[in-house]
Amino acid sequence: MRKAKISRMVLAMCLGSFVMVIFYFQSNLKTASPQGNGQARGSRKSVRSPLQTLYAADSMDPSPLHLMHQARRELLHDACRSHTRKRRVLIPDDLKHVIVDDHHGLLYCYVPKVACTNWKRVLLVLTGESGDLHDPLQIPANEAHAPGRLRALSEYSAPEINRRLRAYLKFLFVREPFERLVSAYRNKFTRSYNTAFHRRYGTRIIRKHRPEPRPEALERGDDVSFAEFVRYLVDPSTRREEPFNEHWERAHALCHPCLIGYDVVGKYETLHEDAAYVLRLAGVDDHVTFPSTAGSARTTGDMAADFFKSISPEFQKKLYDLYSMDFLLFNYSTPAYLQLT
């Protein structure tokens, strides 16, 4: 009788322990999932993560779009292996431009002047940070860029960073380097409303790179020429004094593609199909659409060529050398309008 009672107690303890083990592992799986807390809009259609969906498609999806992205990924990997020095360890400062979407398992490195405002709007909707706004274009640009609205990967602990780098889909969008540079110049130095840029950078550029500047130009800094801007960029003392502003910093210096193994390399030249590809991998393409905006003010290759007519071959070569890694890593051809010989 006593033995039977002891046997029942042992069996009950074993069953209780088994239930606790199951509960523990279920809790851990739930914590590790990129689904989030249920508040984000646009739950994924598939139980696969975006990263799993991408690499499963390597053998299952023969579509030209998928093959193109596979080729871009491999080209970037090969270029990094061939043209960069010994790999160093990532530090939090390298990850300030990498935005985290824990709800859908996404890491997006934003590059200014490459549709980053619209990508931030999309991520605000996906993470539930847009409030009652469902259409990304309803979110004002200044709110999309407001600090604290979206979390950067640099804000997490080292173990949390490493887990996300392993488990999340990592993507960035890049652009032909000199079109992006001319776009940044046009936006920051030729628009009357950008007085903060004029005072901070324009006055400095004029003081250093314009012979005998007028007092009002030194005060306002609102009439910087493209040639003066180029001289400022290639002057070695510029980067010794402070880092480049993110609007003209090189994409590889913002996103560190040779340290972070990006899974998708989107391009501004194929923006909407590449954006749709990322949203489809995330399983949210029926919930949010990447914004389509008018392109009348867009900086084109022909426009960039016109700006470079004012730049001497000597400074064209210096500028190309400065941005050469962006051309190389992201497979952009040297512009035909450059005079490099």
Give structural attributes.
globular, 341 residues, 4 strands, mainly alpha
Summarize the structure.
The protein is mainly alpha-helical and 341 residues long. It contains 15 helices and four strands. The longest helix has 31 residues, at 2-32.
**Order of SSEs, N→C?**
HHHEEHHHEHHHHHHEHHH
Mean pLDDT: 88
Terminal Cα separation, in Å?
A: 100 Å
Largest sheet: 4 strands, mixed
Strand content: 5-15%
Question: Can you offer a commentary on this structure?
Answer:
This protein is mainly alpha-helical. Helices cover 52% and strands 5% of the residues. It is built from 15 helices and 4 strands. It has helices at residues 2-32, 50-60, 64-83, 116-126, 141-144, 158-167, 177-189, 195-209, 215-220, 226-234, 236-241, 251-255, 271-281, 301-308, 313-329, and strands spanning 98-101, 106-109, 169-174, 264-267. A 4-stranded mixed sheet has the order 1-2-3-4. Strand 1 and strand 2 (106-109) form a beta hairpin. Helix 7 crosses helix 14 (301-308), helix 8 (195-209) crosses helix 10 and helix 10 packs across helix 15. The termini are far apart. The model is unreliable at 1-7 and 9-33 (pLDDT under 50).
Task: Note the topology.
Elements: H1 2-32, H2 50-60, H3 64-83, E1 98-101, E2 106-109, H4 116-126, H5 141-144, H6 158-167, E3 169-174, H7 177-189, H8 195-209, H9 215-220, H10 226-234, H11 236-241, H12 251-255, E4 264-267, H13 271-281, H14 301-308, H15 313-329
Parallel strand pairs: 2-3, 3-4
Antiparallel strand pairs: 1-2
Helix pairs in contact: 7-14, 8-10, 10-15
